[in-house]
Amino acid sequence: MEFLSRAQVVTALGATLLVLIVLDLVRRRRLSEDYSLLWVVSTVMVAVLGFSTPLLTSLTHALGILYEASTVFFFGLGFATAMLLFLSVKLSRLGQDHLTLTRELAFLRLELERLRIHPPAPSESGRGTPGRESA
Amino acid sequence: MATREVLVIVPALNEEESLATTLDEVRAVAPWVDLLVVDDGSRDGTAEVARVRGVPVLRHVVNLGVGAALQSGFRYALESGYAIGVQLDADGQHDPRDLEALVAPVREGRCDVAIGSRYVTPTGYRAPKARRLGMLLFSAVVRVALGQHIADTTSGFRAYGRRAMEAGRDDFPRDFPDAPLLIALGRRGFRFLEVPARMREREAGRSFYTLSKSLYYPYKNMLASLMAWLRPDGRRRS
């Protein structure tokens, strides 16, 4: 295997290490599978570029980039941007969920306060309140 | 089907000092309305001030924004069967003596949303320069989007009919509900009417619109206005 520069070796090994870290985080349930997808795809891609000099060289020429190292940066930056966008979308979604939950809690608390002040009369069928039933 | 008439929705954030006066004044001047305080994550005794007066409180455990507080108020009004929901600031800025004049056009079916406006007739109110600029800007934005002139697009003193509350309940930004809500409703054919209203200086506490938000506000409002204009069918944002 022929490497063009030491930087390429560092990139290849660094990306491989990152793949392993990501997979380990998933294994330990610290990172959910759906979040890991983009990480795995991007790091594997960078690792492949790092290890395969012919692929890196031909891709560099095809894209009209002057240096091979720039191609790796180009893809790395592309994935970082995609990841940030993906996270922003996820955050927006979470924000909406958080709003829904907070609002639901507000309505439930108000309902609870009302029930404390005006408890419902026992039903006519004589079953009493659920609390008494379970006691 | 509406079974009760008017609910005054008071969104409040850390307003324990002025809320008491506001609630007492509404009760004294307009005993025909019901009140609801939406405590938007206050860290002071805002909720307690309302509770001791027997005013129901919807308490957001964290701050969601004035738009979200208003949406919660709309939902409460709709579920409780109110025909009209009025948005009124907790800081004493809006004069409850104007409530009758604000509600009347909605009740009589002359409009779907009545906006308490500083500019229909001179009220002696002089907004700070930056705010005046913002009002002119958003007035222009609303005019372009709806072809209708609304002088006071930033007024937080408005009366909404039931259909307008249903349409607007989920579909405006959670932080600044001003121009985007008007555009969202206007695009769906709801009618507005500006009603003269007195605006007073804040009694205590801090405005929702702090200095740090003054740069973000125009950006967010412009973008949200554009989006409201692009989504006339009222699809949910999520």
UniProtKB/TrEMBL annotation, chain B:
| Name by which UniProt lists this protein | Glycosyltransferase family 2 protein
Family annotation (InterPro entries): Glyco_trans_2-like, Glycosyltransferase_2, Nucleotide-diphossugar_trans
CDD domains linked to this entry = DPM_DPG-synthase_like
Which residue ranges does the record assign to the Glycosyltransferase 2-like domain? Answer: 8-166
**From the UniProt record, which GO molecular function terms apply?**
transferase activity
**Top-level division of the source organism's lineage:** Bacteria
Keywords of the record: Transferase
Q: Which Pfam families match?
A: Glycos_transf_2
